Amino acid sequence: MATNKVTTNVIDMSGNTGGLVWAKGTSAQRPTGVAGDLRLNTTDSRLEYKDNVDWKRFSEGAAGGPTFAVDFLVIGGGGGAGKANNANGGGAGGAGGLRTSYGSTSGGGSSAETALQVSVSTNLTVTVGNGGPANNGNSATSSANSGGDSVFSTITSLGGAGGGRGGEAAAVIGGSGGGGGSNSQAATAGTANQGFAGGAGASDAGGGGGASEAGNTDGQRHGGDGLAVSITGASVTYAGGGSGGGRSTSNLPGGDGGGGLGAGDNATFGGGGTTNLGGGGGGGGSTALGGTDAGGGGRGLVILRYPNTYTITVGSGLTSSTATDGSDKVTSFTAGTDTISFS
């Protein structure tokens, strides 16, 4: 196509009632460009210009600035597991609740949520929930501690529920439910659209619920599996439940996605849930000499995916890293709480 160069310094179009037709295309079709180039980005229907380095969006006059879609993965901290109590194995911790807008499925078997519309220059809260400590005391406390909630703006994923101490029921509801102690103790439910229920104890303790499966689904004691999400550009499984403690059986790995190992008998110890996967802790194994210790839950995680034409500012109270995947940036928050904003 021929290029017509305008040599005048002023173009007066005041007598026209139409509009200019800009060059247009998707984010993937951006040319290398030179400073001052203008185009309409059809991926997000916004005008953009090339500065000396990058393509930038024009500022808009609406209150709060322009809005754009941010995909999210928010995982609460995993629940701690219960200590064994003599011959009774400890119930496992449930995984942290999982909510995501990326892909087709979210936690608890629900459909993926809608990406969050975010305004530039607006402060948004991000919190990464810690894992819940195990119940390794000698008191008859019925449950270990739940994990901490994780937050991105209006999206909250609950911490996983703590597992029941050996011979005792799990007591609280979390993102995913905690497993009951052995000797037929009750488990707790998960939260709708976040995670599944824990498994009830039988001769062995129950497994904790995971993001895609209830505890005990794959057999007695087993932690529920987590959910695979590709928001970073690679498929990673998150939010697996811990496996319950054995009464007269061997160690059992936790659910896929960071669930802690459930200890067998003979004075073995439950494993902790994996940090930044939100895995539930594994229950302590039984022993005639006194209950063995259980594992704590793994810390949660918040991941945001957004167009690479935006820049994120992160408060000092958060630990984060940002990478690029195609035409998007991906920021992962692994600890802390503070506010963020975009420009």
How would you portray this structure in words?
It is a single chain. By secondary structure, the protein is mostly beta strands. 0% of the residues lie in helices and 23% in strands. It has no helices and 16 strands. A hairpin with a 4-residue loop joins β3 and β4.
Report the helical percentage. under 10%
As residue ranges, the low-confidence spans are: 60-64
Order of helices and strands: EEEEEEEEEEEEEEEE
Distance between the termini: 36 Å
Largest sheet: 10 strands, antiparallel
Q: Number of helical runs?
A: 0
Cα radius of gyration in angstroms: 25 Å
Q: Name the overall outline.
A: elongated
Task: Please indicate the percent range of residues in DSSP E strands (runs of 2 or more).
Answer: 15-25%
Average per-residue pLDDT, rounded, comes to 88
Instruction: Classify the secondary structure makeup into a structural class.
Output: mainly beta
Tell me the total number of β-strands. 16
In terms of topology, how is this protein built?
Blueprint lengths: L23 E2 L12 E4 L4 E5 L4 E3 L9 E9 L22 E3 L15 E4 L4 E4 L22 E3 L2 E3 L69 E3 L6 E3 L62 E7 L4 E3 L3 E8 L2 E15 L1
Could you provide a short overview of the structure?
Helix content is 0%, strand content 23%. With 343 residues, the protein is mostly beta strands.
Record keyword descriptors for this entry.
343 residues; 4-stranded mixed sheet
